[in-house]
Amino acid sequence: MSSTRKNNDDPWSSSSDEDDDSDDENVELDAETPFYSICTYCNSDAPKFDTLALALEYDVTNYGFDLLGSGALVSSNDEDDFFEGAIVLINKCRQFVKDNQVKFSGTELGQELNNYLKGHKVDDDGDAQYYKPVLDDDSMLMCIDELCELKRQTEQESQADTSAAGNNKSDPESDDKMEKLQAKISMLEEQLSRAKGYIAALANDDDDDDNSMSDDSRSGDDGDKKQASSAKQTNKKPDNDTYYFSSYSHTGIHETMLRDTVRTAAYEEAILSNADSLFRDKVVLDIGCGTGVLSLFCAKAGAKQVIAVDNSDIIKQAREIVELNGYSHVVTCVRGKCEDLIANNALPLNGKTVDIIVSEWMGYALFFETMLPSVMVARDALMTPETGSMFPNVAKIFIEGCNETERLDYWNDVHGLNMAPMKERMVSELTQDAHVEIVSDENIVTDRKEIITFDLNTCKDADLDFEVPFDLHLRDDDKSRNELQIHSLVISFDIDFAVPNTKSVQFSTGCQSTPTHWKQTQLWFDPVHNCPVLNREAGDSMKGVFRMKRNVKNHRAIDMSVVWEVGREAGSGWERISDGVLKRSLIA
Questions:
Q1: Tens digit of pLDDT for each residue in 224-260?
Q2: For position 394, what pLDDT does the model report?
Q3: Cys staple from 242: which of 86, 184, 200, 330, with CB 3.0 to 4.6 Å?
Q4: What are the angstrom distances between the C-alpha of 96 and each of 91, 203, 223, 301, 358?
Q5: Among candidate residues 422, 366, 418, 412, the one with its CA nearest the CA of residue 392
Q6: Angle, nearest 10°, between helix axes 144-165 and 174-183?
Q7: How far, in Å, CA of 547 to CA of 330, rounded?
Q8: According to the UniProt entry, which residue ranges have a biased composition of type Basic and acidic residues (predicted)?
Q9: Reduced to 3 states, what is the DSSP secondary structure of residue 412?
Q10: What is the rounded CA–CA span in Å between residue 476 and residue 480?
């Protein structure tokens, strides 16, 4: 079905600019955020602990309160409930201590806390308020995965004791249970990420409303207070950084990236093959270093100094990995948000500039998660003029058309059964947002067209929100089908390490190349109501304008829009056959 677009219609739903995001971040230089025990965190001289286990043990020894042994903490086997339940329980305990620290002390406080938790249920209606952190920057909340592991160890020890007491016979099902638990590790990590998302969503609400009010509003009636509170909430900017950095704090995401041999091998080859021409005796800044793999490649290539920056607690392992591989004299690991480290002169540069900025900042569709602006801040502030370079230094975005008739028609005959309602459901799901999937080259029916190129040494922040024209033609290598529907537009990118006078290295995330962890990003048309159709014999092609911009509410998400039309060259010029507007988003 075709649609008619009036010339004065605005195909873009909104043109409002993104709010300036300048959220404060804690900046740390070779230092870790301490843990506070449940029962002492309110004290002015509260002891600080290097590990979660030490903080929990302190409560057991000095207050008789055992969070791990508490029946209120969900079993580690219940992965669907553990993470949310642990967040609620920790905040509920901290609030109780905050309210009762003067009234009770020592083991009495611990006993009262134990009594208080006897009626605790994870699904209490009032639990929503306890997703809000009671303690600012609570390390315990950011290590729920570690808490789950400690809980699991406690349960295993308890089972072992029970088994020993029962004629010292082992549980025949224990090995099977452990195997199942190991198989669910990835599921637990996913639950952790979701739980941390809950924390991040409320991170800006960590102050009581009364504390944000002026003295005048405090002296007013309840209506005035509510009005002041409402105004505060309206003016607050969302925290879209906390969940982002937290998501890089667990192993799975780093393993996925390192196992992406296209990505990792390209960086390795680009760095090591240019050791003499680019890296030897140079100062290198690695932004978003993760496990430190790129920093170590640079050190192996002969860099004089490498500064590895990351704002997640994976920096702890990066330091250990650097030392383990014998490069601690070259690589310095710094924790913090890059912009804040620069603003506070917290990088160990002693006034020097950097020769090379290495970073793996790319996200789905190139710009998802919006890390590049942070790298550009460092580029503009620290990179040596004229001779310095970003590495990689070129990025390109591509678009192509996809036909997935087999996938859509599958539901017409499933073992002899018509399941057409499932096709309708699938189409409804596919057209909600952009989808990240590996798209087979066999399903690509148009040419792959480059739509924009970024010189990473010179591009500006404003360039990252763009709109560009495109045109697509049916591929020449498959002429078996004359008329083809375009079910989706596929977005991918290529990366070039192409500094002048060096060996050039490139990798692609296109459908024609070896799949990467970035996969491809699909923007689905509605194949039922308005799906473009190209006729080969008639010479049809698709023209349009592609637009990508950062989401106004969450700058780490991206919104994509396509104004398209299908037509052909006729005697009187371009003849339009059908047109439409496609809008999809990648939500963070």
A1: 444 444 444 445 555 555 545 555 556 788 899 999 9
A2: 98
A3: 200
A4: 9, 20, 28, 55, 47
A5: 366
A6: 170
A7: 43
A8: 170-179, 215-227
A9: helix
A10: 10
Q: Where are the alpha helices (DSSP H) in 202-260?
A: 215-219, 222-235, 242-246, 251-259
Choosing from 369, 400, 404, 565, the catalytic residue is: 369
Q: Output the CA torsion 29→31→32→37 (10° steps).
A: -130
Neighbouring residues of 529: CB distance < 8 A, sequence distance ≥ 6? 1
Residue length of the chain: 588
pLDDT in tens, 61-103: 888 889 888 777 877 777 667 888 888 899 989 998 988 887 8
Calpha distance 387→410 (Å, rounded): 56
pLDDT at 285 > cutoff 70: yes
C-alpha–C-alpha distance, residues 241 and 464, integer Å: 19
3-state secondary structure of 258: helix
* Helix (H) or strand (E) run with residue 149 in it: helix 144-165
Sorted by where each starts, the structural domains of the chain and their CATH numbers stand as 1-21+391-588 (2.70.160.11), 52-205 (no CATH), 247-360 (3.40.50.150)
CA distances from 465 to 12, 455, 560 (A): 13, 15, 10
- Cα 295 to Cα 68: distance, rounded to the nearest angstrom: 38
State the residue for tokens 């890059």. 338
pTM of whole model > 0.85? no
Phi, psi of 281 (to 5 degrees): 65, 20
Residue 580, burial from CB neighbour count under 10 angstroms (0-12, 13-18, 19+): buried
- Alpha-carbon distance of 506 to 496, in angstroms, equals 4
Question: Which stretches of 383-419 are DSSP H helices?
Answer: 405-409
Mean pLDDT of 262-286: 97
Q: How far is CA 385 from the centre of its chain?
A: 32
Taking a C-beta distance cutoff of 8 angstroms, is the pair 70, 38 a contact?
Answer: no
Question: Is there a contact between 548 and 453 (Cβ–Cβ < 8 Å)?
Answer: no
Handedness of CA 505, 509, 513, 517 (dihedral sign): positive
Strand partners, 526: 530
Peptide bond into 133 cis (omega under 30): no
Q: Is 339 a catalytic residue?
A: no
Amino acid at 135: L
Residues 6 or more apart in contact with residue 98 via CB below 8 angstroms: 42, 134
Q: What is the DSSP letter of 16?
A: P
28, 79, 360, 565: the active-site residue = 360
State the burial class of residue 476 (Cβ atoms within 10 Å of its Cβ: 0-12, 13-18, 19+): exposed
Q: How confident is the model at residue 107 (pLDDT cuts 50, 70, 90)?
A: confident
Q: Known catalytic residue: 360?
A: yes
Residue 495 near residue 573 (C-beta atoms within 8 A): no
List, for residues 136-153, the tens digit of each pLDDT value: 888 898 888 888 888 888
The C-alpha atoms of residue 389 and residue 288 are separated, in whole angstroms, by 17
Q: How far apart are CA 444 and CA 491, in angstroms?
A: 12
